[in-house]
Amino acid sequence: MDLFAKICIDKNSLEHMYIQLFKSIKNMIEQGVLKANDKLPPIRQLADLLGVNNVTIVKAYDLLEEEGYVYKKIGSGTFVKPSGNYRYLNEQHKYPVDEDFRQMDRGQIQIRNNMISFASATPTPDLFPVEDFKNLLIEVLDRDKGSAFGYQESQGYYPLRESLVSYLSAYGIFTHAENVQIISGAQQGIDVISKAFVQFGDSVIVESPTYTGAIATFKSRGAKIIDVPIFEDGMDMADLEGKILTHRPKLIYAMPNFQNPTGYSYSQQKKQKLLELASRYNVLIVEDDYLSELSFHGYESATLKSLDIQDMIIYVKSFSKIFMPGLRLGFLVIPQKLHHQILAAKHASDISTSGLNQRAFDLYLRKGIWKQHIHYMKNIYEERFEIMVHCLEKYMAPLGVSYTLPKGGLNFWLCLPEGYSSNDLYHECERNNILILPGSIFFTSQGESRYFRLSIAAVYPHEIDFGMKKLSEIMEKFLKAKATSNINAYFPIL
Amino acid sequence: MDLFAKICIDKNSLEHMYIQLFKSIKNMIEQGVLKANDKLPPIRQLADLLGVNNVTIVKAYDLLEEEGYVYKKIGSGTFVKPSGNYRYLNEQHKYPVDEDFRQMDRGQIQIRNNMISFASATPTPDLFPVEDFKNLLIEVLDRDKGSAFGYQESQGYYPLRESLVSYLSAYGIFTHAENVQIISGAQQGIDVISKAFVQFGDSVIVESPTYTGAIATFKSRGAKIIDVPIFEDGMDMADLEGKILTHRPKLIYAMPNFQNPTGYSYSQQKKQKLLELASRYNVLIVEDDYLSELSFHGYESATLKSLDIQDMIIYVKSFSKIFMPGLRLGFLVIPQKLHHQILAAKHASDISTSGLNQRAFDLYLRKGIWKQHIHYMKNIYEERFEIMVHCLEKYMAPLGVSYTLPKGGLNFWLCLPEGYSSNDLYHECERNNILILPGSIFFTSQGESRYFRLSIAAVYPHEIDFGMKKLSEIMEKFLKAKATSNINAYFPIL
């Protein structure tokens, strides 16, 4: 109790006493003064010691539990959480492994020359239209001079917003420049939306598994993440409805086409059902459209936004997978009534997105080069896609590895037989110069997973067969060896 | 009570009941179901009605108060706050006025052709080195091709971080590329730092008045903002120490040189004292250096970071005022031990800053063009500065308007005689085609203020005398008219 006697509660402070106490204990945990499984003092005892009411202690302990610092055992008291789920410190601890994986997803890992990366979903730099874009940059600078380098309006360069409106109409989305918000990439889009609508303690529903960057952002807002399993034809709608009722989420984050990481697409029926639920329960849906252009075999990849008669969807559009991620450019289409909140959040994030890039991209759209580029990328990716489909059948199916063929996109989601962890497989592959992305990082529960993701964005056609053959050889050995890892958590549904 | 009978509390939910209740009532307030000054039900009554414990109601009401939705009157109960200080909704309500002002600060307002803007602190586009930069962009694209458009590392392009290290040494800051984090402008720097270190309920100390963008970001994190008045030689150190002890802030946000909006600079003594307090109480200091290059008359504008022997300062460097805001480029120098938290927060914000701009700016530094540019800008601004100093003496002093001459920078902070509000003056000026920035927006308390800010960034030398003469004529009339506005809040110290 000596430790706790030093806690200083200022009764004259404007800050609630329980918040003061919460912070003191939080600091003691973060600084290692209190260690894993240390027991906190009983409520009455600490209340006496500090000369405060029991309720103050109860509230502080509740908040500590809420924030993941402690756990409670009924009948025996409150204890410091061992692998502390407390947000930032934890982020730091797990950094080396997880960040590695996340960075791989963005092609940010220096890979050895002889490596084949099925991990990165980012196109190789040779696919970027560098010369075209260089000429447009020059054209913009000669035309606009210094104005191209001033602060752009926070909502975005108006002519670009107009061009995007016309681009969207080709995809069945009819909107106005007033409803378009330019962002510095989809990740910022998710961040800005969270700032505007997600407060501490709010719930957010996500597909499980889902994009890791979205989870990080929602967590950073202090949100409670509610998982809804995703199936080949979309989220489990009954489960979703139940969780909407129970948790009253601030928003639902979904990728209805070629979901990341699974590659699954929602059926037309489930898309409609999702809209219906949003309308019935007045929940905001954030549709992350990072790839819907890349549909193959004539699959109709309608976006939710194009079906959104009631104007309830926030549509997030990224160009990073199909254009140039380094531009840091994307946009939102926002329901009319939500403008001001989004604009204020964007302003507090980085004021505005680089005007030069916006202006050059505007010309890119206006001159029709964008359409040609999409066509070009689609052909390139389709070739790789077909090769991969063929390789899966040839190399993976015989090993008992299961998968569902996506209808487009860049990602394939594979599942090891029971008893194996893809974390272990990752290490085995990495040693053999093949990079894959283990499924565990896409689940909020941070366990192990039988799933892994293969992407065709950063591999050349000739590498795919070679790489998949090698992968199958590695896996054959891997699967023969007894499953040695301790798999604590399975995801039985998926 | 009928309204409240409809509240549905799910006892089986993983979400605490008080959080569920908090959200229900919050929604009723936001949706206008509960109106200003409506009384919430007495605790016991609501507890009976919902079949929950009294403590649940107490905790929900406390959280509502904490979040600015309700106020309590001792002995009479809990009531809905009238001018709701609740965060987002409020942001929306006050949007038209405040956002206008904030945007003016960034030169984002379309001003009429015949207007003179002393409101914007952003340089006019003719001062941007467009041709030089265009050539560097071309050079980079010819050199790096597609790599310039790939995802840049989240921490920033390594060669640029090296260049910045060498640039910083000229300002007495000795660091390593590992301690430099590239950001998309200073606003994002503040946002990233907040994400990494400020949680819901934490306190943050700011100078009062201060930069509005910082306040918006801290508020968006759910932080409690603690004001410490700033004087001509820096914050009141006794007050600061007291508030550190009382509020145990997560960080202190300060602009030690040519503070925005006051133009005040900390004395050497107070800079040292600030460092000492940070060290004694283990508080993080965020130094926002947006202008220290612009010191005139040989004033020694040492940054805190250059005095930071104990590596406790996060240094935020913006180039928007002296270079090109549209690049959205700045950087942080971070204490060694805080890397991972900052990097994770940057990653969750926008993954990385545009690589093309980073690469071109790197060349700009390496080729020495940057040094020439600073020199050029300093000369231009110094000319305007001197004209303004002269005009203040000539036009403002005789009117009883008080001010302190800054030692550099772009901003002048003026104070009207007692009884007058600069909000009113703003409107008078705007009608007469002169833009000023009323002081009220720089105070967290949102009241009226006698202060206003004049900036020389966006006015040409010949406009300054003309504009100030006109301003003095407007003010003469304004001061003669009886003070008609209802000034509720003064800031007596400042």
UniProtKB/TrEMBL annotation, chains A, B:
Residue ranges of the TM segments: none
E.C. number: 2.6.1.39
Cross-referenced InterPro entries: Aminotransferase_I/II_large (IPR004839), HTH_trans_reg/aminotransferase (IPR051446), PyrdxlP-dep_Trfase (IPR015424), PyrdxlP-dep_Trfase_major (IPR015421), PyrdxlP-dep_Trfase_small (IPR015422), Tscrpt_reg_HTH_GntR (IPR000524), WH-like_DNA-bd_sf (IPR036388), WH_DNA-bd_sf (IPR036390)
Residues in HTH gntR-type domain copies: 15-83
Keywords: Aminotransferase, DNA-binding, Pyridoxal phosphate, Transcription, Transcription regulation, Transferase
Transferase keyword on record: yes
Entry's Gene Ontology molecular function annotations: 2-aminoadipate transaminase activity; DNA binding; DNA-binding transcription factor activity; pyridoxal phosphate binding
Listed cofactors: pyridoxal 5'-phosphate
Subunit and interaction comment: Homodimer.
Family recorded in the similarity comment: Belongs to the class-I pyridoxal-phosphate-dependent aminotransferase family. In the C-terminal section; belongs to the class-I pyridoxal-phosphate-dependent aminotransferase family.
Protein name: 2-aminoadipate transaminase
Source organism (scientific name): Thermotalea metallivorans
Organism lineage string: Bacteria, Bacillati, Bacillota, Clostridia, Peptostreptococcales
